[in-house]
Each structure stands twice: as structure tokens, then as C-alpha cells.
Amino acid sequence: MNELLEILAERLDRKTLLVGDAITDKYCVDWSGSEPVRPIAVVRPTNTDQVSSILQLCHQYVQPVVTQGGMTGLAGAATPENNEIALSLERMVGIEEIDLDSMTMTLLAGTPLQQAQEAASAAGLYLPLDLGARGSCTIGGNLSTNAGGNQVVRYGMMRELVLGLEAVLADGRVISSMNKVIKNNTGYDLKQLFIGSEGTLGVVTRIVLRLQPKLKGTYTALCASNDFASLIQFFKHAQTELAGGVSAFEVMWTGYYDYIVENLDTVKNPFSQSYACYALVQYQGADNSQMVEMFESMLCDAIQQGMVAEVMVAQSSREADNFWRIRDGIGDVLKLLAPTLGFDVSIPIRDMQSFVETVETELKSQFPSARLLLFGHIGDSNLHLAVGLGNVDDELKIAELVYQKVSYYEGSISAEHGIGKLKKKYLPLSRSSEELALMKQLKLALDPQQILNPGRII
Ligand SMILES: Cc1cc2nc3c(=O)[nH]c(=O)nc-3n(C[C@H](O)[C@H](O)[C@H](O)COP(=O)(O)OP(=O)(O)OC[C@H]3O[C@@H](n4cnc5c(N)ncnc54)[C@H](O)[C@@H]3O)c2cc1C
Question: If DSSP codes are grouped into helix, strand and coil, which group holds residue 222?
Fold first, then answer.
């Protein structure tokens, strides 16, 4: 055992420090499918002071540390590298306060998203962040990846939901910016350094979230269209007619939709014919007949004006769930498509169809055995591409093709999952050399020994 581990073993009890066989597989890899690596130790602090004293020691011994939340990240950032200590937030769980007047929630960073959502709901409020990994991902992980999810079009990404935070720097200094107010123009907004920086600048320990009023009515429809351009018109129409109340606008191209309804027994296709693309629209508002009328009248107008060809309005939460299962079915079909390669990119909406057509055409001609499924949070310019590789040797070449096209259309190589380790080499396609140099400068200013999540992002 090295000297640092001996000191940690003297100071920390057996629940807080795991070594040897006590390190189970869950600390070795996140959801990215990266190669698992066993950390040399796992520390599981229960409070900020412990995080601070652990990092102080690691800083002194120049010991690399990887911070771990719920390990659902898809960019490989929480998967350890050789010789790293994993710092898991799994014991820093709990809601400290829900302030009904300020509509805020103060909580520990290791709290699972679903627990926070349920606590907000029990208090009569609403935490609008939602994603498929809600049961396992943590608020600290959501903050560090600036998570998006299904309702960004209305409520913004995690960045918009964070009012304040507390973070521990690499040398153990605690920065407390536990701000609760919406307006606070008092110099640099330090919390922004930690949001979306994937644990490279500090370990986030406590967070203040902004909550929203709980709306009781949710209205959902699955709409089919003969072309993507009409769906874009439909999106603008829905936003205007529903006064900005659209809370999800998810688009699925026919290749995706058909593959899901053909292969998943758990979903029912409500349409009797195939269309070019589909939009799953969700609107949240009060629970009354006026809202129903407004929603249905918006849909009728869209049909009359030719923006959509056919519409199914969910008459029950069961029907709405069926629509969402089609949208979320990707997780269940990945094994059928394997080996796969996933992309989470942003493309300006006006260029999206051109991007899709170019990628489809070039993939077909250069990699005939590959299969492309396309879907995304189109209201946020976020497109997901799931590629069944056919031939595993094509992986790198297909990644190059897609990322080069993203760069050509001035999009982003990561919309919501982050850069981590897996997309690091493509980052210069989305950020300029000056931006990258400034990121490196910031990293060195906050973590001069580069012990926090080294090798991630930059
Ligand atoms: C089924 C599924 C669906 C998903 N859907 C979405 C989606 O719709 N939108 C979306 O954005 N993402 C999605 N994701 C990706 C993932 O859930 C998010 O990135 C999530 O925010 C990660 O949270 P986590 O707690 O699991 O973090 P981890 O995977 O543990 O860590 C992710 C990154 O955050 C850092 N980190 C974690 N906690 C802290 C902390 N307290 N302080 C500092 N750094 C920290 C880690 O070092 C790492 O860099 C999905 C993943 C799955 C498996």
C-alpha cells in the first residue's frame, strides 16, 4: 500500500475507504461502455469537510482522483484511469431544505434525480429536469454534465435550474456559492465554472435548485408528417398557439420509428401507414377543458395547414406512455443493432434536414452494412444518431464522417452528454484553438497539479 493510502486508512473508517476486494465492479465503469478499470481505492465521504480533507491529501501527494456520481454518464468521464482514486458521492444523499416561498431546493450532490423530483412533487412543486437514467443519476452528475433531457425546450438545461452550489477545489478549498436568489450580479458567476465541466474543476458537494410550479395538466399527441420541413413549421405553430407551453417536442425519422414498432412488443403503433417523420408533442398547463380545447384546436389547425398528416391525441396516461415508449425504445433495441455507435449532436434547426440527408447518403454509399436510426429533441436542435455498425472495423471512419459533417454545419459534437474521454479528440471540431487554450488556462488555475479527472475534456 502506498503512503497516501496508508494515511487515508488511518483517517477513514471501512465504510468510507474501500480497497482490494471491497471495490466492486460498479466503481470500475460508467454507462459509456468504456473498458472497465479498477481504481486503486474508493473514497465515499459523507460531508464536505471529508471531501476537503481527502482532496487536500491527494493534492499534496499529486494523486489523481476521478469523481463518481450515479455512473450513468455516456462520455466515459467517470470511468477510472489506471492509478486513480475514485471519489464517490453515493453517501452524500439527502434534501436539506425545500423553500416554498423562494421555490428552491437545497440538497447534497449525491442525491438521485428521481429522489429530488419526488421530494419537489411532495412539496407541491416541480423539478423539470428529467431523463431516462433518473433512478440512478445524481444531481451532482446532472450539474457536472449540464444534463438536458426531454423538457429543455421549455425549462432549459441543468444550467438554467441551478441557483447556487458548493464545491471543493483540487487543493481542498471549499467554495460556497449557495445562492438562492434569481438576480445576483455580484461579479463573476463562479457556479458556472462547475456546471458542465465534468468534474475537471472541482467536486460539487451541495446544490441549490430552482423549482417550478407544479402544473396538473399534461397533454400529449403523436403526430405524423410527410416531410421534416413541415414538422419545423409545426413546432413553431405549436409554440405560438400554446404560448410557449410546449414541454417536449421529440422527432423520430421513419427508419427509427419503423425499427422500434417492428422490434418492440411493448409498443403499439397507432398509425396504419408509414410517414417520413413523427413528432411527439407534450404540453403542460392547468388541468381544465379550456386547455384541452386549446391543444386540440392547435392540432386541427396544423392538419388543415398541411404541417402534419395524421395526429393521435393520447386519451389516457396509458396511451401517452405508449407514445413515450416509442420515443424511449432506443435503449431496448440497441442490443439488436449491436455493435453500435451513438452520437449526440446539435445542428442548427434550419440545416438539420440537409445534415440528415447528407449523412444518410454518404453512410449508405461508403458503409452499406451500417444502419442509421435518427431521433432527437428537435426543439433544442439536438439530434441523436444510433448507428448499427454492421462491420465493427468501420467505427472510427463512421465517427469521422459524422463529426466532420457536424463541423461543416457549425453544430456541436456534444449536445448534452459531454466530452469526457470518448469525444475528446473531436473537440477541436466544435471549439476554436483560442477557446481550448482558455479552457486549459482555467484548468491550471483551479487545479495546478491536474489531479481532478485528468485527461477528461482537455
Ligand atoms: C438510459 C440513459 C438515459 C440518459 N438520458 C440522458 C438525457 O436525456 N440527457 C442527458 O443529458 N443525459 C442523459 N444520459 C446521460 C447521463 O444520465 C447524464 O450525463 C447524467 O447527468 C450523469 O449523472 P451521473 O450522476 O450518473 O454522473 P456520472 O456518470 O457518475 O458522472 C458524469 C460526470 O460528472 C462528474 N461528476 C459526477 N458527480 C460529480 C460531482 N458531485 N462533482 C463533480 N463532478 C461530478 C463525473 O466525474 C463525470 O465527469 C442518459 C444516460 C442513460 C444511461
Answer: strand
CB 113 within 8 A of CB 139: yes
What atom of ligand 1 comes closest to residue 149's alpha carbon?
8
Q: Does 137 contact ligand 1 (Cβ within 6 A)?
A: yes
Global model pTM greater than 0.85: yes
For ligand 1, whether the C-beta of 133 sits within 6 Å is: yes
**CA atoms within 13 A of residue 404's CA, in its CB half-sphere:** 10
Same domain, 382 and 279: no
Query: Same domain for 424 and 351?
Result: yes
For residue 356, the surrounding DSSP H or E stretch is helix 352-366
Closest ligand 1 atom to 30 CA = 29
Say yes or no: 281 and 349 in one domain.
no
Return the SS3 of 138. Answer: strand
**Of all protein residues, whose CA lies closest to atom 37 belonging to ligand 1?**
141
Q: CATH code at 9?
A: 3.30.43.10
| Same-domain status, 273 and 177 | no
The finding on whether 380 has its CB within 6 A of some atom of ligand 1 is: no
CA atoms of 172 and 169, how far apart (whole Å): 5
Q: Chunked in runs of 10, what are the mean pLDDT values of the chain (458 residues)? A: 93 97 98 95 98 98 98 97 98 98 98 98 97 95 96 96 98 98 96 98 98 95 96 96 94 97 96 97 92 96 98 96 94 91 95 96 95 92 95 94 96 97 96 98 98 97
Ligand 1 centroid to Cα of residue 90, in Å, is 13
